[in-house]
Design brief:
The longest helix is centred in the middle third of the chain and has 16 residues, at 159-174. The chain folds into 2 domains: 14-274 and 358-424, TIM Barrel (Alpha-Beta Barrel), CATH 3.20.20.30; 292-354, no CATH class. Helices cover 39% and strands 14% of the residues. The protein is globular, with a radius of gyration of 23 Å. The protein is built from 15 helices and 14 strands. The chain has helices at residues 3-9, 42-54, 86-94, 113-126, 141-148, 159-174, 218-227, 238-250, 276-290, 293-304, 329-343, 347-354, 364-376, 395-407, 420-424; strands at residues 17-21, 59-62, 70-71, 74-75, 101-107, 131-136, 186-189, 194-197, 210-214, 230-234, 263-268, 270-272, 360-362, 382-385. The protein is of the alpha/beta class.
Length: 433
Amino acid sequence: MTAGRARQRQPQRKRMHLAVRFPGAGSATVWADPRAGSRTDFASFRHLAATAERGLFDFFLLSEGPRPREHKGRIHDLDAVGRPEPVTVLSALAAVTERIGLAAAVGTAFHEPYELARRLASLDHLSGGRAAWNVVTSSDDAFLGANFRRGGGLDRADPYARAGEFVATARELWDSWTPGGVPRPFAHHGRHFSVSGTFDVARGPQGRPVVIQAGDSGEEREFAASAADVILTGHGSLEAGQALYADVKGRLAAYGRRPEELKVMQGVTFVLGDTDAEAQENAAEIRKQQVSPQKALFAAERVWGRDLSGHDPDGPLPTVDPDPAVADSLAVAARWRAVAEAKGLSLRQTVIEVTGRQSFIGAPASVAAQLDEYVTAGAADGFVLVPHLVPGGLDEFADRVVPLLQERGAFRTEYAGATLREHLGLPLPVWKG
């Protein structure tokens, strides 16, 4: 047997998928850093999307924020206030990018199938088949409902039933046009929606926009197995990732689907350095910036359920007991106190210790090896990176980690197709008109 034939018979190297989420106004983003950009300036969106495309990423994800977060009845001044509507921003990005997928996180609680299906189908045409929809299933009626239904929201008991019917209805609309470009009347009559008429946007270049579902719960896994093309999960240990991966893939057969028809992607953060030790130092400094004194007090107030504005964040934890009306407050406060006492930590140091850490920390070669291990060991099909800075937080990863992944054969060296479905290796949807 020749060496050439031996190489041909070797199994193909499993390659990972990569995406990036535009950082939000949560605790991961360091808006105080002088290098931080804007959450409303189009230049920030364009820079991050262009960097991701230069790095050959699968898609760029932009979250929805239909109402600013509040604290004590006031807009939370630690957040970057203001967030443009995602499909609008992605439509503008479609004109200045060529290959990268454009994914909008949009909720099913306060939108309607026809108007959202129409916007996403339009984005798919404008982008040449690169549109995706991250289905947000939370109803969040106590907070968001006042913006949409005069103070009322949806029943929180079963958001997945509405979400499932919402996705099914959107697909009925997208499929109401034949592949040959002929519109046909549609009619859907269900528990949550009753719509009929003629959809006015032809079938898109990739058949339908890619559907993404985020979450790790049993309901979220089942919803993804039944209706999604991609599931976004939380980052855990390698073993936890393997268990989740096997569980999600194992649910697909019940819906007549194959394992390759649903991609499992973990949402992760990263910190780089010239050496592993330097990366650890960088990570510690970033955590200090992420948990400012004000954010530490905010985190403690959410646990204690009390006004702690006069408390010293660099002093000890509050001696007063939490408000028992706050769910799990006593147990969480007891855990915090145990950590603070064991390590001699202040309130702020305790918040840094007990809240989330960066997922992958190290020199570029170390991070590349860690990411590759998760994929080859069956813990994920890929990752959605969340940089801690806007808009340049992905630059170093694209320049220093991506080439190492390519050298390992773990990531593409060029885009093989034009649509997002092609990037993800997803089959074209079968027309069911």
